[in-house]
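ok so i was messing around last nite and threw this chain in just to see what happens. nothing serious, just curious
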Amino acid sequence: MSQPFFTLGTRLPGRLGRTGTIHTPHGEIQTPAFIAVGTNATVKAVLPETMKELGTQAVLANAYHLYLQPGPDIVDGAGGLGRFMNWPGPTFTDSGGFQVMSLGVGFKKVLSMDSVGVQSDDVIAVGKERLAHVDDDGVTFKSHRDGSRHRFTPEISMSIQHRLGADIIFAFDELTTLFNTRGYQEESVERTQAWAVRCIAEHERLTAERSHRPYQALFGVVQGAQYEDLRRQACRGLESIVGESGTGFDGYGIGGALEKQNLGTIVRWCNEELPEHKPRHLLGISEPDDLFVAIENGADTFDCVNPSRVARNAAIYTTTGRFNINTSRFRRDYNPIDDECDCYTCKNYSRAYLHHLFKSKEMLSSTLATIHNERFTIRLVDRIRESIEGGYFDDLKSETLGRFYATSRV
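result:
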């Protein structure tokens, strides 16, 4: 690439937070940035063109789901993920490791952010069959779609992601939960490290083989759960890996299950170790307090299904808290969802109308609610970035969180 992949901007005084710019073949990402999740090459219920209008800088799709349907060869034949879904900007794909393991133990898309409880290395959701089995070479799993058996290894994950063609891809890692024992977490960090070495080697091979395609940046993924020594060990290990070309990872993802109450501390441990001239992506957060904490501790980008997922269940984010729009008190409320929001939904529709759509089970309810929640999250992160550049981060944090969490309206 003719220019640096990542350039630093303004630093947050006394902390690890910063602004910056990620340069990709399909455009720039001004950081900090929220990356909208389009699991199946679509943000559910919303057109790609609409996501662009909402200020989305990049979209993340899921390698596991696109591997199962429609298949990476179909996406590759279309010219890559962006062309396939008619998205002109930067794209990410995750490695599939999270879904292989979380769906494989029956937890769907959510893992606990609370480690209180018994520790077990055979953790599985109540009433579910274990669909995924890990060994040192990779993971064998059954499809959550039809029960067919599949195998993911670092090499297979790289092959899938290269054919999907996203600008930023992730090394295959083993996801653990907060309930796994310390001993297993140690084994998992070592296994993820070994897989990372294999990912870089295969990534270099495929990059040379597919030189007709734009370069794809590869991020290593930090595991280690809630243990400081394991997190720091994982970071140092990933940074030490270089391929035959003499280069290492282009950036890093901070993954695994994270304790909410220790989120900032864990992110800080990692970013004190990771090189500051490379971007850091935090996988799976979007709550306002989590965003502020992660950003001030050095995270640059984030992805999460939550804004769109809860929207489809009538949960709405506003500057004064979160509420469920389908409750009776909104039946005759003709105000916009949020007077301070500039999204299409708030400009054109009332709370009463959204209440009616959800009660009537109309598909438009999901579309309008998702538009609003995605814009709320994107706009919040944009404002945080502006506050770092403008020198008023702490004031914005105090005001925003004070208003949002003043009363519980869930």
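not much to say yet. The domain at 6-304 is CATH 3.20.20.105 (TIM Barrel).
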